[in-house]
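Journal club side-thread
Mid-discussion, someone asked how the predicted structure for our own chain would compare to the paper's figures. Pasting it here so we can look after the session.
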Amino acid sequence: MNLLLDATIKVSVILVCGLAAAAAAKRKSAAVRHSILSAGVMCAIAAPVAGFVVPSWHLGVGRSPFTTTTRAEPAMPPATQLSDGSLTAVRSPSNDRPNDMMRRLVGPVWLTGAVANLLMLLVGLGRLAWLAARSEDVRAPAWTLAAEEVSIEYGLVRPVRLLQSDHPTLLVTWGVRQPKVILPRSASTWPDDRIRVVLCHELAHVRRRDWLPQMTAELLRSIHWFNPLVWIACRRLRDESEHACDDVVLGAGIEGSAYAAELLDLARAAAKHGTTWSPALAIARPSTLEGRIRAMLNVSVNRNPLSRSTAVFVALASLAVTVPVTGFATSAAPTATVSATKLSVAPPIKVVRRSVLDRRGPEMTGSQLDPTVGVVAGTTLAQVAFASFAGTIVDPSGGLLPGVTLSLVNGETRAKQEVRSDRRGHFEFVGLPAGSYALEASLPGFATLRQGVTFSPGQIAEQSLTMQIGSIQETLIVSERDSYPPDYGTQTLAVRKREPGGTPTCSAPVEGGIGGNIKAPLRVNNVRPVYPPAARDAKIEGTVDLEGRIDTSGFVTDVRVLRASQADLAAAATEAVKEWRFDATLLNCIPIETMIGVTVKFQLSGTFQVR
C-alpha cells in the first residue's frame, strides 16, 4: 500500500504544479499551455519508476489514514508491567481489525479499477484499428490535392493516410509513425471549404504530435483512475490540444467565422447520430465547442506557435520539479488505538536492549526490559512503528573503530541512510521502515563489510560488527633487461594513524579502548622474479596474479596462482614471491596475519606474442 501511496503523492504533486503553471500561462498561447500539461503528464507517469534510481528522501507519516482513536489521549500509555517484571505494550485489537481489513481491500480495489480502465482503453484502440481495417483509402482529387497542399504548408514529411469509414460522423486523427485520418461516410460530398478546414485541423494534430501525450494521459488515467487530479489534467490536455490546432488553422488563413460555421455543422451532425467515444482526437466535441468558438472569434487571443526555446524551458522546468518529487517516499507509521476501558497484551515484537538508543538515561536492567517484547516504559507504539538499528563496530582484536562509514540501502525503495560511528565506535540508524536492507561499512585499511539485514515493524535491533584488515596489493614489472638493485614495485595498504614524524601510532590493546591502529608490513627481503629464458627467447609476455598470506613472522605462505598467461611465467613469479620476507603487520601493536595479492607483469621490448 505504501508504494501506491508514494506513487499517488508524486503524481498529484507533479500534476498540481503542471496545472498551476498552465493556469499562470493563461495569457500565453494554447500551444504553450499544452506543452506544459504534456510535460507534466509525461513526468507524472515516469515519476514512480524514476524513484528507483533517483536519490531518495523520506517523510514519516505518523498516522495512517485508515486508523482512528477512541479518545484524545496519547496513542499509547506507558507500558504495563506484568507479573514477571517484564514490560509490554497495549492496544485494542478490536479497533485494528477494521483498519487491517481496509488496508487489505485497497490493493484489490485499485487493481480492479486499473484493469477495467486499461481494458476500456484497449477496446477503444482496437475499435480504431478495426475501423481502419474496414475503411477505404480516399482517392478523390479534392481530398488528395488538398491534403498534399496542407502537408507542404505544414512541412510534414510523414505521409498521412486518409481513410473513409462507414460511420456517419466519426472524424478522428490517430497514430505517430503512420498517422491516419478517419473520415465519415459523407466526406465525399463535402464542399472544398469544409475539406480544407478539416484537413488543416487534423493535420495540425499530426504536425504537433498530439497523439503521444494524449495516449500517455489516457494510460496515466487508467492507472490512477481514483485520482481526480489526473482526470482534470487529461481533460485540460485534450482541450488545449484542440485550441492549439484551432490556432494553427486560423494561422493558415481561414477566417474565424467560416471556421466556426463549419465546426457547428459538424457538431450538429455528430449530435444527430449520437456521440461515439474514442481515445483518438476528434475535431468537433460538443462539450468544448462553445469555448473554442469564443476563442477563435476573439482577435486578442495569443495564437503564437510553440518556439524551440520555450519548449526547452518547459522541459527543464518540469525536470526541476520532477527530480526532487521522484525521490520522495512516505513511510506510513500506523498509529495504534487504545480502548478506554480494556487493555490487552500486544503481540511480541522481537527486539534487543534499548540502552544503546538512550545512553543518557539509566541503564535498563533485565527487570525493566523484556527480551522478547522489549517495549520501554513511556514509549508509544507510534514511536516504535519504525525500526531502529544500533551497535558497536570493532576491529579483529576488539578495539573500537570510530569514523566508520555505515550505510543501509532499502531493497525495495532503494532509499539510503548513512551514518558514521562515533568516538566510541557506536552507530545508530533510526526511522527505518520495515523491510530488507543491504548494510555496508567501510574504513581505510579495512576490508569493506557487506551483509544483509531485515527489520520488522517497531524492531529495536542491536548488533556488534567486526571489520577485517584489508589485504596488501603489490604490482611489479619484470623486463628482459632487469638490473640490480631492483625496484620494489608498488605496495598499497592504507594506514589509519601516524605520528607527526610519520611513524604509525602503536598502543597496547586495552579492553574497550580505541582500535584500528595498523602498521603496514614492510618488505625486508626482496627476490626479483627472473624472466624465464625460454619465454624470453620465444618473445612471450604475460601477467601473473598471485595470492598469499603473510604470517605473524613475516613469511609469505600459501602462495597460489589466480591467473597466469603462461606456466613458466607463473612458476618464476611464484618462486620469487615465496622468498619475500616482511616485518610483521601490527594491529594495535599485536602481530597479525595479512593477505597479500601480487601482480607480476613480464614485458619485453620489440616484437612479442602473448600466450
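Post-session note: Confidence is low (pLDDT under 50) at residues 60-96, 330-384, 483-504, 607-611.
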